[in-house]
Amino acid sequence: MSRAPRRHALARRLRTVWRRRLAAVVVGAALCATLAWQLGQMQLHEALEQAQLLSHRALRTEIDRFRYLPRVAGEDARVHAALTRPGDAGAVAAANRYLQTVTAHAGSDRLYLLDTAGVTIASSNWQDPDSYVGHNYSFRPYFRDALRDGRGSLYAIGITTGEPGYFISARIEDAAGRPLGVMVVKIDLRPLERAWAETGQQVAVTDAYGVVFLTGQPGWRYRPLHPLEDAALARIEASRLYPGADPGRADPLLGPGARVMIAGAGPGATLIGPKVEDGWQLMTAAPLWPARTGAGITFALVVLAGILGLGLADMRRHRRRLIALRLRQTEVMERKVSERTAALKREVEARTRAEADLRATQATLVQSEKMAALGRMSAAIVHEVSQPLAAMEATLTAAEFSLSRAPEQTAARLQSARGLIRRMQRMTKHLKNFSRREVAPLAPVSVTSVARSALQLAQPRADRAGIQPRLVAPEGPLRVLAGQVRLEQVLVNLLHNAIEAVEPGQGEVTLLLQPQDHRLRIAVRDNGPGIDPEILPRLTEPFFSTKIGGEGLGLGLAISSEVVQQFGGALEIGAAPGGGAEIAVVLPLLTGQEEETAA
């Protein structure tokens, strides 16, 4: 057999095997989906039973609060006086006030008194426009049941107020047991409806005829569960239970074409519990889509898992075929990795040496730049030192001549010579600090003191340019975490740059200390020509200089920026207000607690 037929036969066998495996996966997924559907229905049934139990307890509790109120209120002497003397206005007024007080304390909706003819002679709402006084309610079943059996109850829409409520009645008797009248309390059960609506529960209560009268679903109210018979419709009409509503013409909730269907027969599930009160029944409903969705997701997941499993099994076969090839390649790869590792090791060693050389060269350049700056200051320093020496020589000569003649003048001249010597000492001290390499750790530094020292070091160059730099600083201590000598070097470099940028004899250079929140801004501002925006990004690059004639190495701002970053700050370069340039050192300002921690 040639290769082509063998390949076609192998492909047909693979397709057949895959079809059988996929069929097994689909059958297994269908079984799992069926189990998920049944489990979803069981959970739905349990949820409906739980909701029904809670609703039943809430309804029973609300009714039991007022069940004995008509009988207890009917025992009062003022009620008996109003029934035995209905023509006595004082007795009726006392009964009205009594019923009003009882209603306010009990929290019921209405409490009213009927005589044996069903006429209201006293009511808790006797002062309201919709007062029950004078109305005849003998057609209500709760009145007839109370006269006959001693108690009655009914849920209906009020004839007088148009508001629904649950009416509980009790017969009032005299000492001989003869009926005198009926006491009725009206309970507003609509708070239960609002609670069901807010929680999204599909709960309904039906009367003895199967008409929904209490529910959180507005579309269910006053609709029957099943089509009503003519006799039931006649009794509802005679009792005037639901004036303004017509349950006989409303679509039934359960049955063909209804919105809520019996479990398993449509888009919803219902559960009707046992009788609650006066033939009432409690019904809970819930949609079936969660159970259907769960079954569908289960089917999809099982199918997906089966396909993935088949794919993984096929991948394992391919993997076994690749293992042999990879084992052969491993030896070659390990040899290449060893060679490359050795080469990388040599490269790392070379780069390490180069970095060490670079750091040493950088340190040398920094020191060279400092010494070059020191050299540039030498002429002005010699001039600055020669003046005190000449003055001191003249002072000592004068002191020698006046030693015996005027001792007071001699002491003054010696004091002047001592001041000149101290001036030279301060100058040489600043120069030694500027020239040495600082390796001390960071510590709290008084910025005002450092700024004054920097101004003294820059003063010879400022005198040569014919300008007088100014220090603008607020009162009080200003301290940062830095190296005193390095911060002084940075400020001297910025002051020299500003002095060189202004016009001799007319320039202005200002050193400003500006506290801002938790930062300190040390700004050197001049009124020179400013900085070209095109070269502004390159000012902190090493060996970049704008000075003519090759002065300097172009490392001043680069070194300053690096030093400031070591202090946890930044160097800001921009235009000064009113023209010129402004370069600022921004550092975190130390608080008292931070200084103690740093110390």
TrEMBL record:
Pfam families: HATPase_c. Its EC number is 2.7.13.3. GO terms for cellular component: plasma membrane. GO terms for molecular function: ATP binding; phosphorelay sensor kinase activity. PROSITE patterns: HIS_KIN. It catalyses: ATP + protein L-histidine = ADP + protein N-phospho-L-histidine. Keywords: ATP-binding, Cell membrane, Kinase, Membrane, Nucleotide-binding, Phosphoprotein, Transferase, Transmembrane, Transmembrane helix, Two-component regulatory system. SMART domains: HATPase_c (SM00387). It is found in: Cell membrane. It is a multi-pass membrane protein. InterPro entries: HATPase_C_sf (IPR036890), HATPase_dom (IPR003594), His_kinase_dom (IPR005467), HisK_dim/P_dom (IPR003661), HisK_dim/P_sf (IPR036097), Sensor-like_sf (IPR029151), Sig_transdc_His_kin-like_C (IPR004358), Sig_transdc_His_kinase_DctB (IPR017055). The chain crosses the membrane at residues 294-313. Residues 380-591 form the Histidine kinase domain. It comes from the Bacteria. This is histidine kinase.
